[in-house]
Design brief:
Elements (H helix, E strand, L loop, with lengths): L2 E6 L2 H13 L3 H27 L5 H38 L8 E6 L3 E6 L2 E6 L5 E4 L3 E5 L5 E5 L5 H8 L6
Antiparallel strand pairs: 1-2, 2-3, 3-4, 5-6, 6-7
Helix pairs in contact: 1-3, 2-3
Length: 173
């Protein structure tokens, strides 16, 4: 079953889509665990090295060395992680909020094989098999082709049938 519709994305829609993609990025799930693991390892290495070279070191001092190694690693890597996230968020918002990126009408066609888009004379076809995942919140549906490439659909522009067709990748079931 083929369906056609049009969407005009605002700069706010595009910025919200970029932020939604950033919030749901897989790195956001595992990076804090990796940072904590590295902090625990460094703290343990420092305490074991102190104990190896100075076997008479009191346990209290070894615990203090472990805690300082852990805290230093968490502080250093944690701040870098937070700065990276804020930089990426700013970079994602800036071009999306410009007048050039917003206000363009995009015509879509959904069929059983692909999602076809056309805007300003350019036509692009994405087979459903190339879409890796969808991300959804109360206002947007993103169909992601990779980690950073997506098609954004404001839910206010879609009826329930179109929303379900997009989620099912064109399948009528």
């Amino acid at each position: 079953m083929e369906r056609q519709f049009s969407v005009t994305l605002s700069g706010q829609d595009l910025a919200a889509a970029s932020m939604l993609l950033l919030r749901r990025h897989p790195v956001r799930r595992w990076a804090p665990r990796v940072i904590l693991g590295m902090g625990l390892m460094l703290g343990a290495i420092l305490a074991l090295a102190k104990h190896h070279f100075h076997p008479d070191t009191p346990d209290r001092q070894l615990l203090s060395i472990f805690a300082k190694g852990l805290a230093g690693t968490l502080l250093f890597l944690g701040l870098q992680y937070v700065m990276l996230l804020s930089l990426v968020a700013r970079m994602a918002r800036r071009p999306m909020e410009s007048a050039e990126a917003s206000g363009k009408r995009i015509d879509y066609r959904i069929d059983g094989n692909a999602l076809t888009m056309s805007a300003e004379g350019e036509i692009s076809r994405i087979p459903w098999s190339e879409l890796q995942r969808d991300i959804e919140d109360e206002n947007l549906l993103l169909l992601c082709r990779g980690q950073t490439t997506f098609c954004a659909f404001p839910k206010s522009h879609l009826d329930e049938g179109l929303l379900m067709a997009l989620k099912r990748r064109g399948n009528p079931d």
